Amino acid sequence: MRILFFGTSEFSVEPLKALINSSMFEVVGVISTPDAKGKRGKKLIQPPTKIEALKHNIEVYQPEKLKDKETLNKISSFKADIFVVVSYGKFIPSEMLKLPKYGSVNIHPSLLPKYRGPSPINYALLNGDEYTGVSLIDVIDKMDAGDIYMQWVEKISRDDNYLTLHDRLSKIGSEMLLCCLENFSNIKPKPQDESLATYTKIIKKEDGLIDFKNETAYQIINKIRAFYSWPTAHFKHKGKLFKVFDAELIKTENTKPAEVVKVNKNELVIGCSKDAISIKIIQPESKKPMEIKAFLAGYKFSVGETIG
Which residues, 6+ apart, have CB-to-CB distance to 89 below 8 Å? Predict the structure, then answer.
């Protein structure tokens, strides 16, 4: 089976590797978004899928636009039997989706129709969900709305953050993809229930800002987990930015939001709109992440001090 792989982000790499390493499939090309500008725009950064494909001498095509004749002709020239789409980052036009003999399969890291859109892993953690999963679906011209080939339910550990859950779901999706393609002719896809559809949005830098005055400790802990990789949960204090990578929820009463509740050599506890958090790993501006004990050796806080 000749496979044309559409994928860009790190989440796409494990599925791509699985296809390349399988003797049953031939990856005839990888379609990714164009190289992106790095910090300060000095150096172009190649997508992770491009880096992986080039290791195996697989052709990589990075069109700016998909809705033009030149791109359509190029995609057609790969003569793919099926498209595999994983975190590609662009809508594939319906005319292009008609090209492969067996259609298309998309890996989406949620239990569709829940959490359609670009940020399903973030939203599952942000909302404190106990379970998430992976869905393999048909690709249509409506976002994440295609019929479902198969699904996997995965429990979310309280120790999970975006990075751990992202990596685990990517590996699960890889295994599911091989199973799906190997049994493709025998799988009957089922339509999604549109009445249950929910949607996610692109995460922005400002979404990571911690609001001790109006957010509960539970909400802040979930924000720390959801935004672990980017934009990272953060707060500002005395003109400096501090990123928080790990914290513990502390049940407490009669604490004032955004006030330092407790501080010693090993603890920094900050009140929230309900309960408090004890920060475990923090990154001061222009420094590396550090354990709270090392942080407090160089930064002074006082009980009753207001954060913000």
Answer: 8, 9, 33
SS3 of 195, please? helix
- 5 close to 86: Cβ distance less than 8 angstroms: yes
pLDDT band of 41, cuts 50, 70, 90: low
Cis peptide before 113 (omega within 30 of 0): yes
Average pLDDT, the chain: 96
The pLDDT confidence band at residue 153, using thresholds 50, 70 and 90, is very high
How far is residue 24's CA from residue 171's CA, in Å, rounded to a whole number? 19
Q: For 172-219, how does the pLDDT look when each residue is reduced to its tens digit (9 = 90+)?
A: 999 999 999 999 999 999 999 999 999 999 999 999 999 999 999 999
Proportion of the chain in helix, strand, coil states, percent, rounded to 5: 30, 25, 45
User: What pLDDT band is residue 231 in, cutting at 50, 70 and 90?
Assistant: very high
CATH of domain 2-196: 3.40.50.170
* Assigned architecture for domain 205-296: Roll (3.10)
Strands 276-284 and 104-108: what pairing?
A: unpaired
**What H or E segment, with its residue span, contains residue 162?**
helix 162-182
φ/ψ of 244, rounded to 5, equals -115, 125
Domain positions in the chain are 2-196, 205-296
